[in-house]
Specification:
FAD/NAD(P)-binding domain, six-stranded mixed sheet, 2 domains, 12 helices, five-stranded parallel sheet, 34% helix, binds flavin-adenine dinucleotide, single chain, 26% strand
Amino acid sequence: MLKKTKILIIGNGFGGVYALKNLHKILAGDENIELSMIGEKNYFLFTPLLHEVATGGINGANIIEPIRKVLGGSLRDFYLGKAEQINLKDKNVVVGEAIVSYDYLVIAPGAETNFFNTLGADKYAFTLKSIDDAVKIKNHCITQMERASHVLNTEERKKMLKFVIIGGGPTGVELVAEMEELVRETFSHYYRKEVVKDVSIVLIQRGPELVPQFGTKIRTKSLSVLQKKGVNVLLNTAVKEVGVSYVVVDENKKIDTETVIWVGGIKPASLNFTEKINKSPDGRIIVNEYLQLDNYKEVFAIGDIALFKDKTSALPALAQVAEKQSKTVAKNIKNLMDETALEKFSYHSSGNLMSLGQWMAVGEIAGFSFSGHLAWWFWRTVYLSKLISFRKKVRVAVDWTMNIFSPRDISKI
Ligand SMILES: Cc1cc2nc3c(=O)[nH]c(=O)nc-3n(C[C@H](O)[C@H](O)[C@H](O)COP(=O)(O)OP(=O)(O)OC[C@H]3O[C@@H](n4cnc5c(N)ncnc54)[C@H](O)[C@@H]3O)c2cc1C
């Protein structure tokens, strides 16, 4: 009997899931291929809408998709757990009790929150990387409102209701805009006026501008929209310490708060290799023009964990990068099997879109920037189309429609 070719993917996010989909497309019908995946969760999470789960705009269950549903027919095996050790020489990966062997390996475990060694941040700040994180943020904000409703001392109430978000990248900006929506549209509907007026939202950004990875127009527009919404944006401000009820910024200025959300950066997920591999100083796996590891041609790395140098600069940590890389990897695995020339990866951005609350978004496509209602409609259409199943698309569309006509759900779950 012919020996089957085993292709193994580590990670079930954008890179991993799309690699599997593309491999399935390219290799469809070949019974000598086995596609397997290792993932920490048994679902695919659509991260771009996570901030809306954290602010009650979307039900968390609507932005996840069970892996076995998405990839059912194409998957030989799904291993639920963490890839603990990768043995490049013997071509296998340890996950729990299992040792999974491979002929080709795609590494796509993404990234983790980077606190940059900020004192207390890992202990006291919320993060936004998972459904659990988003639900914790939502529950906490609601708890603070409930508690503050019975506090008579205004100063005490203001401290309880000061929400501090650290990190002025796209995630921080989108989250802050939605939080303002939550306060204005929903909290003001359910809580007394004098309580709601004590809510404040602070966005802290280390650099001189918000969303520095985007063009000038988007940077300027984001700042002006947030300021108009009443968000206190602190630019050129570095956080030194996060405590149980405060944040310390430059010049030892203390901000009293019981809510700190850290979206200030990411670092590559940690993986344990038995052999030494080339990594960048920040821990990303360096890949060549074909997205392979230099000394292991059957091993590819994509997404947030990979460092692919496009001309001189590294690519941004974006879902569209991981998705595009997954196409090249699928083709190159097929090319290796067919012993034909490999395809070089080159990245062309499809553009960037960012929501700034209800009816407002900003975008740039092919050097052209736009904002406003149309951009918002476009943002929603694009993200809706990217959700994997029709069922979840409909559910998110329903959640969004309901938000236009009624306050968000403030049940603590
Ligand atoms: C809140 C938020 C909002 C975002 N918004 C946008 C946006 O609007 N547009 C955009 O383009 N990008 C956005 N991003 C970035 C985007 O999500 C990432 O760039 C993209 O997901 C990277 O894909 P990936 O496959 O490398 O990692 P991921 O999609 O993160 O997938 C990695 C998967 O691997 C799993 N994993 C980790 N370690 C292991 C292990 N050892 N073994 C097995 N499995 C493992 C993880 O649990 C995860 O499921 C956002 C990110 C966040 C957190």
